[in-house]
Amino acid sequence: MTIPNGLVPHGDDLNLDELKRAAESILLVSGGPVTVDQLVEALGVAPQTVHALLWELQQDYAGRGIQIQVVAGGFHLCTRPELASYVQRFLRLDHREPLSQAALETLAIVAYRQPITRAEIEAVRGVRSDHIIERLLERHLIRDVGRKQALGRPILYATTEGFLRYFGLKDLADLPVLEGTDPRGALGGMTPTPHASPAEGSEAV
Amino acid sequence: MPYIVKIPQFEGPLDELLTLAQQGSVDLREIPLARIAEAYLAGTEHHVDLEEATEVLWMLAAMIEMKSRLLVPKPDIPAEPLPLEEPSDLEARLEEKLQEYRAFKEVASALRALEDYQHRIFARPPGDDPNAVFLEGVTLDDLFRAFQQVLERAREEVGEITAEEVKVAERMEAILTQLAQHPQGVVFADLFAAAATKLQVIVTFLALLELIKNRRVRAQQPQTFAPIRVALAAP
Q: A166–B118: do the CB atoms touch at under 8 Å?
């Protein structure tokens, strides 16, 4: 998150401090991530101003119990990881169940090679993966995005917005770099997913 | 722990047999691989070590492939370097696959770290707030007026509570009497034979539940969808 404060347009002759606090209150009342567009509409300012306000807000949160996460193309007000034990105790939550290693690997293959068929996933993993794919579909981490124009017209799978949220990713370009191959090459055949677009603006933050 | 082969032709670790076969020191045509596989399978009936099983399976498969190459008659024409290339070609492809898989394993561990981080942060649950008040467009005055109306209506209609025709306690007694006459118990549906009205069925069922809860009656079902038998509990 690096943006020079000078990016705030001069046209917005408004009380920036109040707008910052307004943005904060919107993040608080919203359950999920709030997009730049939503903030532009609610605050009545330009997208650059929204970015600048949120950047400042994020600075204000240094040393506090909450933070702003840029996830799935939106801004999300959430707690800090080091305070997890307190929050868990308050919410009476058990430790969240992590994905199995096999599920995680399968998910990684889908994420980098999407859209991908089951057979293509299995070719990489070397084992049958229908059960794991079923589980990932149930958890809404991947979804069915159509059929491949090939023999048998197999179903193509891609990751969901829930996937981005689950891993705290801004968009698919935010994925860790895949060693050995050109990471962008791995994503090459991909069609841009609709949820990836609103994140473009947040790149600047 | 490598698997130890014990056949008349060879005794020792399986991986050593594979190495010797690859070096050409052992003639696989003399080695009954099926016997080794059978012996190993017999051993797995009591205990399977998955790691070992994977290794054994892989090594046996490799040897079966080598043996099949030895058994297939070679063409008379001296073979060109083709047969030499084939395995290396296969190896290259395998190596490529492995590398690809390793790359995914690596990003999987990076994703694991992200997952761990996300699991330790919390946000407000999206959507439904359990404490949300659903009173849109309703003022306190509206509420007050509505309450007054209810009070007035209550004053107008002094209701009459009809006497309870069927009592749970009575039905409990009736069930106990009925069951006392049938020490072997009765089929669930028989308890309702006398119950004509809906109310009677409901009350009888409540009475039965109460008796089961109090452990005075037990219900048994030998299998799913089989008729349930109800009998007096052993004192």
A: yes
